[in-house]
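Think of the structure tokens as a kind of shorthand, similar to the way a musician reads notation: each symbol stands for something richer, in this case the local conformation of the backbone. In the example below we present two proteins back to back. Begin with the first one, reading the sequence and then the tokens, and try to describe in your own words what changes along the chain.
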Amino acid sequence: AIGWALREYAKTDPEAVKEFVDENFDRLSGLSRREATKNL
């Protein structure tokens, strides 16, 4: 669910999503990271 939410948010603020993923890289699953960065 977090990956989907981040992917949707990236449509309006991609820099914030990139920063969040970078800061929480170790805490996010591979699928969540992949989904979050799909549109970056």
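Once you have a description of the first chain, move to the second and do the same.
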Amino acid sequence: MKRELFLPTLLALSLRVALFIYILLYNPSFMIQPDSPTYINPAENLLEHGAFLKGSHPDLAPETVRTPGYPVFIALSYLLLGRRVESVIALQLLLGALFPILAWKMVEELGGGERVKRLAAWLSAFDPLLLIYTVNVLTEELYALMIALTVLLTLRLVKRPSLPLLLISSLFSSFQAFVRPVGLYLPFILFLYLALRRRFKEGVILLLISYALVFGWMYRNYRETGVFEFSTISGANMLFYRAAYVLQFETKESWVSVQERLRRELESQAQGLNEAEKLTLAKRMGFKLILSHPLSALKALSRGALGVLIDPGGSYYLVAFKAYKPGSGILNRLYELGFLRFIALLWRDYRYVFLVNFSFGLYFLFLYIASLWGLWRNRFNPDIWLLFLISLYFVLISAGPEAYSRFRVPFEILIIVLSSLGLERRDQPSIDSL
């Protein structure tokens, strides 16, 4: 490994180990978040029963809400390092140390110079968003790695096509969706990119292999529950988050009352259905409601996208260091007071929250400006647009009322690469001209 790459990699690992030690000593409950048990339970059932199930014996049922990618990772962690959550975090520490290497390699594939590669590696080493989720039993660290690898392999496939590389790229294109179903439609973007880069045959093969595995899992769910869905979590998200958000714009009711009304409507129509069938019905109901209110849906989408982009994530660090209680409802006041009055409230009553988030916000603002400049400077390079389109895809598909900084993690390394290219010295040629 080059010395220039060794140091940021060592820094990335050291920061993660230091954070892990602190969490172990002072806030071990932070490792387990509300979603964590929904991944741990099917992982334990994989080890105990050899099947992807939820619940506990004798009340076991096929798991269709979660996909198997992250539970398999948890099960592997248990097998290698022992059956404890610390084993999962330990493996994630190693994954996090790979981000500088992946950022370096990505810039290299894009034709960036040595300075740009070093900058991307250092930024990804201490990026606060990539760092904090290392110590949670959540999909973020693994999924960010999968996205980075998928993009890197696809870029290489254009320049150095080969059958082994095509197969590996196709598998990663599919596997990323098994870690988080939010990436279900990502292979279409990769196909369009490959087609535009005159690799149409490779794009078709990638699409076929990716969705062959996806459809295989959908068939498994159909066989087990009668529902041909990749993940039934989309039903809950569609009705109780996206549609509820749209209805809140329409009716001006409280968030809780809208969700409760939708829950009653679902229960009245779902009598006699199993859980998977009920969630599939919820998906149809939610989709119908969204289509019936297009203007409010557009408002909800734009506000959700802003939630993904502008939340600095500083409050999550304060939670980790026991300086802020989650669920305090501070962010809810933003919609009640408006931006300027909300900032005044933060400064008056939550000054430390304001200062931490303001500092984080400056960093992410710097990344956004630099990445947009990098995109503009290299706008004639189609490889650059792949990174932008994938980032845009995640912003739009994650743009719900639940959106916050966590939903930026999958494409954070892409933003870092773009921003590094934007900070390339002017006396160096842009990668368009190489």
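Compare your description with these statements about the second chain. The longest helix spans residues 351-377.
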